[in-house]
């Protein structure tokens, strides 16, 4: 209690401060009215004191007050003999006055917004300084922003309501993804309508619209979203919002998203915003299968270049199956175009793997080869079959050949080191142990944060393989054991012989090479890439730095997936809003009570003190739920940065042999294969 | 001087049983790893040794020496990887032996000028540079020479306690010396990598370089998963709070980023006579290997007390291993009875060829020169304490 007292005083002083901007407006309206009006206002304020009226927000209170006042004034004036026409005229005048006032307020708000923006800009500059080495790469934050924007636009308003507490996403979503097919064109219209000269005022109104939309939507949602008129109203508002957000660069794209993502991600690169806009304008083309795949890829539910490629090919089969050629074009011409829309979305989940890129190239070639005279359904069937065949040839059969070839290198009683998780290597080891009955020991080396090796170790162990699991930090000890050879999987092999694979691969290859342990790479020729690259910094994929914050053996990606950060964020913000409203209520309550009677102030203090305790409890619970990490809130430290890259580059001199379906070859022969077998791949 | 004597007298009243209790509790602490870090271990050992010497009774210095050796042996057996414990005791032993030698020289010079030459030659340390007495047993020599000793004039208790005090002084002021030398080794806008985030010396040095050297540089910090991750995060946070550009990277990304790194800084837990060192984080040897592969210089910072006169013939004896609970998830489905081995080293041995330079509080040295520095501070007699 003793602690809560000074706090109460603070609160009351705050509330006084907050009340001052409200009071002049009341005064201005009540000056015209005579004593009964002021009495009414007093009554209204008394009514507000009732705890049952707490639900009403300040604005609504004011409205009620004003209505009452207006009614009373009208009655008064009628009684004093003023005609209805005159009344109307004076009412009009007042309305105009009010409008002017409102505009003034809006302008002030706009100024505040600009200030905020400036502050944010400053923050961005600080953040821009942050990324030192990988500033040229796309961050997960940006990718996630794109995907969130897209998915909120694509999914139903109900689903997206949860994704963002801003309550804007659903409106934007419903507006954009609403039944109207002409959304894009309407957007274009509005954009054209807005001249450059009127842009400043336009922003003004947009700010106003957002503000009003928020409040209205809030109330609408709170009452009940089932009533159709409110929804349609929201839809309209949302449409307006969408147009606003899309047209003005100063505003953030989809306001709701910014509650989850850093606002500066949008603001400091206009290219991101424009790319999202472009995607949104094309969003009608996106097939649901692709959308699902995108979310799976983005959440690392499908990892590994081969599984990703297979998943993509399967999705393409569905897409092609559902595809219908629009009138006026042929399938061979339009399908490529249609697919490239899908690929644009896929790219946003994660950069395309080399396998995906290669198979897309092949597919496009196949489409272009289709005879224009062919029946559409026939051509579609043919394509689907070809895709299945491609997957079988390039992946399944190739794996068989690789396994056969690589098995020659494993002797009975050998000890093998592998890194991470590779599909072909798992199969190869199982083949050796189960079919060829070799007694081998496998050391699976793993690393943070993805812990893919666990998957492989579990699978091998289930099948009775002698497995040792260790982390990349214990390399020195591992290679002091009797290791015969190192088998590595690949994401891709570049034209200059470099192996592009999961981070840590290069370190293992280097360590093995220094100890004269042969390093063998198993890899399908589908993974061969035309690209050349010299170090791992110039081109790479950035994963979420937050994955490194949690310390523990659990996979942070899985953890994140299980807990649902969006929901968590939602709950957190909701709690904060609750707290705010509670505080408001208590302060209002207190203020009024103080005005009413100062004798009872002790009781009110006790009450608000209790309230304070309850909010404290909430925060304590929150901190309990979200386990604390040392690095929580690292974004605030301007000079702290976390780099979580996914791939690294192994120089060819560390690799003894690359085993492909064409046989075993040295890294220097990669361009030969690329050249000779160009047609088939 | 008088106060020192008084203190010595006061503490000497502590009975032998009492000091034994203290030693036992210290040994228990070492075994339970309740004292972490070579710095703390060194200081605590010195405190213990001070009390031990104060309480000890002896008729001849050699008795004292053998008592100290016995104590050192017990401590070393309790925790063979707490090298600093043995190191500081050996240094005190070396001080005592130096004093004995000086004493001998003086007394023999005054008593018998003829005998002086022979005794001095026999008591002197066998020269390390010569191979002739490589197979000799130096201990016997000493014992023979010392049997015919007379009463010594010097107060060895006082010498030893003064030596301990000096050593404590040296250890607590080690960072100063290191910083002054090391700051000159990094330039503005350099990217540094440190794989030993639990080293206080590295932390202090980096902060000093930023504040005193007024250099802007970027520090990459590896995580050292699983044992040192929280240390790494705390380390990075502290650096960032001191306005140093800090980037946390997973252990696997070291190779990928090594091409950008200008220098690798490691903190050593123990430095062996061959120039190799033990670090208290796993994975440091791989980092140093990477650096070596990229020809990136590696410099190790270590106080003089971390120099150990031991030779790492058997690496596995010196590398500690931790439990599997930090590596394997609790929820690992234990289907079937198939076993799953894990390995979790918590320290790492770095061979001398992967370290370019050692920065100690008395200067920077090549790893190949470390043995010289070691023999300045230790006596070969005391390498094996058995």
TrEMBL record, chain A:
Keywords: Cytoplasm, Initiation factor, Protein biosynthesis. InterPro entries: IF-2B-related, IF_2B-like_C, NagB/RpiA_transferase-like. This is Translation initiation factor eIF2B subunit delta. GO terms for molecular function: guanyl-nucleotide exchange factor activity; translation initiation factor activity. Residues 1-126, 580-625 are annotated as: Disordered. Residues 19-45 have a biased composition (Low complexity). Belongs to the eIF-2B alpha/beta/delta subunits family. Component of the translation initiation factor 2B (eIF2B) complex which is a heterodecamer of two sets of five different subunits: alpha, beta, gamma, delta and epsilon. Subunits alpha, beta and delta comprise a regulatory subcomplex and subunits epsilon and gamma comprise a catalytic subcomplex. Within the complex, the hexameric regulatory complex resides at the center, with the two heterodimeric catalytic subcomplexes bound on opposite sides. Pfam families: IF-2B (PF01008). It is found in: Cytoplasm, Cytosol. Residues 611-623 have a biased composition (Polar residues). It comes from Naumovozyma dairenensis (strain ATCC 10597 / BCRC 20456 / CBS 421 / NBRC 0211 / NRRL Y-12639) (Saccharomyces dairenensis). Residues 1-10, 46-71, 98-112 have a biased composition (Basic and acidic residues). GO terms for biological process: regulation of translational initiation. One of its GO terms (cellular component) is eukaryotic translation initiation factor 2B complex.
Automatic annotation (TrEMBL), chain B:
Gene3D superfamilies: translation initiation factor eif-2b, domain 1, Translation initiation factor eif-2b, domain 2. This is Translation initiation factor eIF2B subunit beta. One of its GO terms (biological process) is cytoplasmic translational initiation. GO terms for molecular function: guanyl-nucleotide exchange factor activity; translation initiation factor activity. InterPro entries: eIF2B_beta_subunit (IPR051855), IF-2B-related (IPR000649), IF_2B-like_C (IPR042529), M1Pi_N (IPR027363), NagB/RpiA_transferase-like (IPR037171). It is found in: Cytoplasm, Cytosol. The gene is NDAI0D02680. Its main location: cytoplasm. Residues 103-123 are annotated as: Disordered.
């Amino acid at each position: 209690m003793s602690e809560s007292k000074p706090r109460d005083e603070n609160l009351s002083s705050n509330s006084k401060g907050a009340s001052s901007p409200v009071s002049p407006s009341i005064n201005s309206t009540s000056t015209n009215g005579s004593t009964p009006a002021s009495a009414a206002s007093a009554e209204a304020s008394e009514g507000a004191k009732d705890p049952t009226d707490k639900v009403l927000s300040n604005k609504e209170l004011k409205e009620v007050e004003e209505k009452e006042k207006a009614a009373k004034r009208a009655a008064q004036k009628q009684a004093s003999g003023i005609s209805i026409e005159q009344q109307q005229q004076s009412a009009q005048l007042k309305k105009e006055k009010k409008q002017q006032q409102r505009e003034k307020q809006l302008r002030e708000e706009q100024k505040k917004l600009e200030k905020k923006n400036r502050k944010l800009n400053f923050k961005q500059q600080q953040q821009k300084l942050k990324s030192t080495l990988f500033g040229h790469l796309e961050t997960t934050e940006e990718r996630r922003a794109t995907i969130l924007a897209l998915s909120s636009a694509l999914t139903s308003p109900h689903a997206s309501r949860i994704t963002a507490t801003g309550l804007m996403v659903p409106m934007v979503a419903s507006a954009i993804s609403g039944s109207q097919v002409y959304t894009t064109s309407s957007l274009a219209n509005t954009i054209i309508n807005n001249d450059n000269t009127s842009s400043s005022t336009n922003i003004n109104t947009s700010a106003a619209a957002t503000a009003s939309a928020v409040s209205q939507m809030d109330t609408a949602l709170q009452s009940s979203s089932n009533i159709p008129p409110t929804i349609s109203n929201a839809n309209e508002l949302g449409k307006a919002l969408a147009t606003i957000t899309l047209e003005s660069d100063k505003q953030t794209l989809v306001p709701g998203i910014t509650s989850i993502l850093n606002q500066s991600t949008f603001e400091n690169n206009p290219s991101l915003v424009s790319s999202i806009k472009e995607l949104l304008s094309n969003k009608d083309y996106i097939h649901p299968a692709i959308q699902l795949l995108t979310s799976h890829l983005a959440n690392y539910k499908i990892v590994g270049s081969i599984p990703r490629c297979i998943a993509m090919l399967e999705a393409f089969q569905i897409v092609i199956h559902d595809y219908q050629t629009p009138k006026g074009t042929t399938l061979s011409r339009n399908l490529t175009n249609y697919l490239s829309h899908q690929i644009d979305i896929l790219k946003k989940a994660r950069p395309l793997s080399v396998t995906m890129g290669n198979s897309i190239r092949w597919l496009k070639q196949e489409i272009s080869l289709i005879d224009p005279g062919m029946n559409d359904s026939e051509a579609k069937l043919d394509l689907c079959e070809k895709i299945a065949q491609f997957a079988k040839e390039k992946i399944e059969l190739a794996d068989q050949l690789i396994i056969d070839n690589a098995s020659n290198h494993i002797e009975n009683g050998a000890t093998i080191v592998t890194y991470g998780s590779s599909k072909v290597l798992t199969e190869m080891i199982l083949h050796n142990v189960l079919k060829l009955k070799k007694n081998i020991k496998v050391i699976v080396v793993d690393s943070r944060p993805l812990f893919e090796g666990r998957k492989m170790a579990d699978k091998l162990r289930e099948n009775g393989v002698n497995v040792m699991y260790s982390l990349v930090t214990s390399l020195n000890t591992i290679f002091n054991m009797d290791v015969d050879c190192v088998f590595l999987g690949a994401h891709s092999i570049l034209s200059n012989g470099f192996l592009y694979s999961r981070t840590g691969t290069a370190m293992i290859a280097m360590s093995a090479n220094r100890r004269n342990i042969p390093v063998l790479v198993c890899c399908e020729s589908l993974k061969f890439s035309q690209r050349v690259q010299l170090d791992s910094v110039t081109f790479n994929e950035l994963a979420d730095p937050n994955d490194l914050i949690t310390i523990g053996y659990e996979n942070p990606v899985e953890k994140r997936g299980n807990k649902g950060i969006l929901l968590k964020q939602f709950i957190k913000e909701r709690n904060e809003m609750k707290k705010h409203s509670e505080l408001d209520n208590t302060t209002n309550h207190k203020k009024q009570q103080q005005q009413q009677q100062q004798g009872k102030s002790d009781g009110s203090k006790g009450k608000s003190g209790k309230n304070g305790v309850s909010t404290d409890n909430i925060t304590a619970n929150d901190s309990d739920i979200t386990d604390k990490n040392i690095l929580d809130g690292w974004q605030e430290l301007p000079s702290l940065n976390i780099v979580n890259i996914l791939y690294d580059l192994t120089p060819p001199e560390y690799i003894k042999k690359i085993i492909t379906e064409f046989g075993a070859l040295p890294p220097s022969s990669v361009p030969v294969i690329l050249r000779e077998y160009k047609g088939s791949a | 001087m008088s106060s020192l004597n008084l203190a010595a007298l006061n503490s000497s009243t502590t009975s032998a049983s009492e000091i034994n209790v203290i030693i036992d509790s210290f040994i228990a602490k070492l075994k339970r790893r309740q004292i972490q870090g070579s710095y703390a271990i060194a200081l605590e050992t010195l405190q213990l040794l001070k009390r031990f010497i104060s309480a000890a009774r002896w008729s001849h210095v050699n008795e004292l020496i053998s008592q100290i050796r016995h104590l050192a042996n017990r401590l070393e057996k309790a925790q063979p990887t707490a090298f600093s414990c043995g190191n500081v005791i050996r240094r005190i032993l070396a001080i005592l032996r130096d004093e004995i030698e000086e004493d001998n020289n003086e007394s023999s010079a005054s008593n018998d000028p003829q005998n002086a030459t022979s005794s001095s030659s026999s008591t002197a340390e066998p020269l390390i540079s010569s191979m002739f007495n490589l197979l000799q047993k130096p201990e016997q020599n000493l014992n023979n020479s010392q049997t015919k000793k007379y009463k010594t004039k010097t107060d060895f208790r006082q010498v030893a306690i003064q030596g301990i005090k000096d050593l404590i002084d040296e250890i607590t002021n080690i960072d100063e010396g290191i910083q002054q030398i090391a700051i000159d080794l990094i330039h503005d806008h350099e990217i540094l990598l440190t794989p030993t985030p639990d080293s206080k010396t590295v932390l202090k040095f980096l902060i000093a370089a930023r504040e005193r050297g007024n250099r802007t540089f970027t520090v990459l910090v590896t995580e050292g998963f699983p044992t040192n991750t929280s240390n790494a995060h705390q380390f990075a946070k502290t650096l960032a709070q001191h306005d140093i550009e800090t980037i946390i990277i997973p252990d696997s990304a070291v190779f990928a980023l090594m091409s950008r790194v200008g220098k690798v800084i490691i903190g050593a837990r123990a430095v062996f006579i061959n120039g190799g060192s033990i670090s208290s984080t796993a994975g440091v040897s791989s980092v140093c290997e990477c650096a070596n592969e990229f020809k990136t210089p590696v410099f190790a910072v270590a106080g003089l007390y971390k120099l150990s006169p031991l030779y790492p013939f058997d690496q596995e004896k010196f590398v500690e291993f931790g439990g599997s609970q930090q590596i394997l998830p609790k929820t690992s489905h234990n289907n079937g009875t198939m076993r799953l081995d894990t390995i979790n080293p918590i320290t790492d041995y770095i061979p001398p060829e992967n370290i370019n330079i050692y920065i100690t509080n008395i200067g920077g040295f090549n790893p190949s020169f470390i043995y010289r520095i070691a023999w300045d501070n230790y006596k070969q007699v005391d390498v094996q304490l058995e």
